[in-house]
Amino acid sequence: MDDIERSRRRFLKEGLALASLPLVVTLSAYGQTEQPAASEKTPDEILKAYGGRSRFVTSERIEVIPGMGEMKHDPFGLTNHLTTPLQDSVGIITPNSLHFVAGHAGFFVPDIDPEKHRLMVHGMVDRPLLFTMDEVKRFPSESRIHYIECNSNFAKPGHKTVQDAAGRTSCAEWTGVPLSLLLKKAGVQKGASWVIAEGAEDNRGTYSIPLAKAMDDCLVAYGQNGEPVRPQNGFPLRLLVPGLEGVNSVKWLRRLTVTNEFYMTYNNMGRYTSVDPNIVQANYVQGPKSVITFPSGGQKLPGPGHYEITGLAWSGGGAIRKVEISTDGGQTWKDAEIRSAVHRIAHTRFGMPWDWGGKEHVLMSRCTDEQGQVQPSVAEFNKLWKPESRGEAHPNFIMPWKLGSDGAVENGLS
Ligand SMILES: Nc1nc2c(c(=O)[nH]1)N[C@H]1C(S)=C(S)[C@@H](COP(=O)(O)O)O[C@H]1N2
Ligand SMILES: [Mo]
Prior knowledge:
This protein is α+β, with helices and mostly antiparallel strands. The chain has two domains: 3-282, Sulfite Oxidase, Chain A, domain 2 (Alpha-Beta Complex); 289-411, Immunoglobulin-like (Sandwich), CATH 2.60.40.650. The chain has eight helices and 21 strands. A five-stranded mixed β-sheet has the order 4-3-12-7-8. Strands 5, 6, 9, 10 and 11 form a five-stranded antiparallel β-sheet that branches. The protein has a five-stranded antiparallel β-sheet with strand order 16-15-19-20-21, with no helix packed on it. It is globular. Residues 11-33 have low confidence and may be disordered. The structure holds the ligand Nc1nc2c(c(=O)[nH]1)N[C@H]1C(S)=C(S)[C@@H](COP(=O)(O)O)O[C@H]1N2 and molybdenum atom (MO).
């Protein structure tokens, strides 16, 4: 009897035992939470054992109130929305401590004991399965570098920094099991068309994912940049749905239901669904997007001289093929150089050496992906998306930064 078969039998047995109980009780059997034993090490011992950064490095996430309006910093910790300080980023990997966080569960991050966590695969499958974390890890693993971006990453004229305007995207190396492998083990039945992914927190964070995407390049991930996925990013297990809006990548993953219908879940409601009920906008592939991280809003060039303009580009449509930079508000463009490895559906670092003579400039970047899709200007974006449906769009328009003759950089949107 192999592991899968064993877990299937256990699942069936537990399922039978629970069959007579109300649904709520059945659900609470999975992904229970418990207080772990606190470390007995002193802060100094922890620093030696785990490492820390220089006290002169102060880059931090900022907590914000989510929504499409102006950025409001929330110092009271009442939300669970944290932005990545892209202005300080180097390379393409976001350190786990600085990965952005978006959650609809309010302030509470589930505190899950991995020993007790279970992942269930059921619905329109031949063999319903129930996995422990150990069992998930016995499958061949895959590690891939991908970005995640929340569709609320909408730059507004009031945003002061690139962290405010674009800090709801990050990029990490995710390690896990291809979702397609788990679904094949379970045996997806004819006629199935959706996979409903459910999280373990109080409001479940459930989302409907097209079966074709689930069978393509999704990962059930337990690793993030070489260590277990961080609690705020879905410990011990999260789904990664590359290239689609971040809300698809369900954290604290505990259940996958294969169905033949789209579920109108909590997370599928509201702005995550088009005004046209036949269109699930959040399942759109995110288009090409880029942003200059230096020089960017709130930074100051000390004086005329030689600089490197640098930034990040990414696309849900695949690899970045080209990035161009304009220093005159989009009238003329020059090719930037790619400064990192280029991964599909991942942040890609670009740069261009530049001599600043001390005049005013409007700096912009524009990227093209492997499909030939070009990042739109604000005017092009506004033509594509009417004001009433703009909240549904992936906000990937070109972000201008205004460089003053004093070297100060400001948001160039009006
Ligand atoms: N279970 C659960 N998964 C979730 C969410 C949630 O609230 N609950 N938020 C989603 C949203 S809106 C986004 S943008 C991404 C963000 O992933 P991160 O917090 O790891 O950056 O997680 C998604 N997965
Ligand atoms: Mo999101």
